[in-house]
Design the sequence.
């Protein structure tokens, strides 16, 4: 076999094997909690899910380090790119165990669009970071503007209507969705431009504020939500469509903060390490500001759902059903999230859950830390060892 493809096959299979083994170990506590309350199972599942991010980083780093460490013929492209498909295909094993409703084609469809969107934004970022010179000229500002515009187009979803020109839009078989959306639109005087529907084992409802549209998944309609509970969820999402232009623009601030990092070379050239610290500070402040605004909007949307329902408990029960269906912790780690804790949202709606406040989940299960430590240790040893 050609050495290039031999290295590529080894990298892909290695990433797949590591992913399967590490995720199997990470899910052991969750697997043993089958008889526990759903909040405890969700709390144990959260750090296991976060292991996937650690695995892909560790696999990529290993694919770069190992050929150099052992003096093997090295080709960065052959060792790097097969890691991604190997990791993704192997991740289906744990995804299916966590949510048995997933079928391969459903998972593949969701993963394809998720990777395409994320890779598209990352590719633009890396391209700008790589091409940004130390001394800026007009063409560099133009390139940055076009790149930032492309990322905004991707993240806002304004390309969805164009996609549906070529793909047949799916319709919900649950006729009450359109009926209840129309009812709530009349009640709030907020008419969504379109209601998107998709097949998914995950219960989701979202507002596409830049398209003035709503999104619902099939699982979101299968979690035994009553009409009143579904109305409350619709009211929450419609409240986001009422957001002012200033708020909608503020939701793009994280994109701007992310793209500002591409100026690291000219900033370092002009201002040195002081400029780097300043750039990091600006990015941090922008992200903090945007998160505070987004969190405030979530509180306003929750208030709209509570006040628009026949009784506050209806919205609390609807949220609890969705969190339970998605196996999301009732209390997350930290208090700096965009969405408040489910437990606090229920209390705000005047409902005291019939279980004590759960402990927050851990950051990441130990197999994730272990798989990250190994390539980092190998990298440090490779850099520190004496060279002939």
Sequence:
């Amino acid at each position: 076999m050609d050495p290039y493809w031999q290295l590529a096959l080894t990298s892909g299979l290695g990433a797949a094997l590591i992913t399967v083994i590490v995720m199997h170990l990470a899910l052991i506590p969750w697997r043993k909690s089958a008889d526990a309350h759903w909040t405890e199972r969700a709390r144990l599942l959260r750090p296991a899910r976060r292991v996937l991010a650690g695995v892909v980083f560790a696999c990529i780093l290993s694919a770069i380090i190992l050929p150099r460490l052992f003096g093997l013929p090295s080709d960065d492209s052959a060792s790097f790119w097969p890691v991604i498909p190997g990791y993704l295909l192997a991740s289906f094993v744990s995804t299916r165990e966590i949510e048995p409703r997933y079928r391969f084609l459903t998972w593949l469809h969701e993963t394809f669009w998720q990777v395409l969107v994320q890779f598209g934004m990352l590719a633009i970022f890396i391209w700008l970071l790589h091409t940004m010179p130390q001394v800026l000229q007009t063409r560099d500002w133009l390139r940055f503007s076009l790149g930032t515009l492309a990322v905004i187009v991707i993240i806002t979803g304004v390309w969805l209507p164009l996609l549906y020109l070529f793909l047949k839009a799916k319709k919900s078989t649950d006729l009450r969705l359109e009926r209840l959306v129309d009812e709530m639109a009349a009640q709030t005087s907020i008419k969504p431009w379109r209601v998107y529907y998709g097949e998914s084992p995950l219960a989701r409802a979202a507002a596409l504020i830049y398209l003035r549209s709503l999104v619902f998944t099939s699982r979101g309609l299968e979690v035994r939500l009553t009409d009143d509970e579904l109305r409350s969820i619709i009211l929450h999402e419609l409240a986001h469509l009422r957001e002012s232009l200033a708020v909608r623009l503020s939701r793009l601030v994280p994109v701007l903060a992310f793209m500002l990092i591409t100026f690291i070379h000219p900033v370092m050239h002009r201002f040195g390490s002081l400029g780097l610290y300043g750039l990091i500070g600006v990015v941090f402040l922008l992200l903090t500001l945007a998160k505070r605004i987004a969190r405030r909007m979530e509180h306003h949307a929750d208030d709209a759902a509570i006040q628009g329902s026949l009784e506050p408990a209806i919205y609390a029960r609807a949220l609890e059903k969705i969190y339970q269906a998605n196996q999301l912790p009732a209390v997350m780690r930290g208090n700096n999230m965009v969405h408040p804790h489910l437990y606090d949202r229920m209390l705000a709606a005047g409902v005291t859950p019939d279980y004590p406040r759960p402990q927050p989940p851990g950051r990441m299960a130990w197999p994730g830390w272990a798989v990250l430590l190994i390539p980092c240790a190998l990298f440090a040893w490779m850099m520190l060892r004496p060279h002939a």
About this structure: The chain has a mean pLDDT of 89. The longest strand covers residues 194-198.
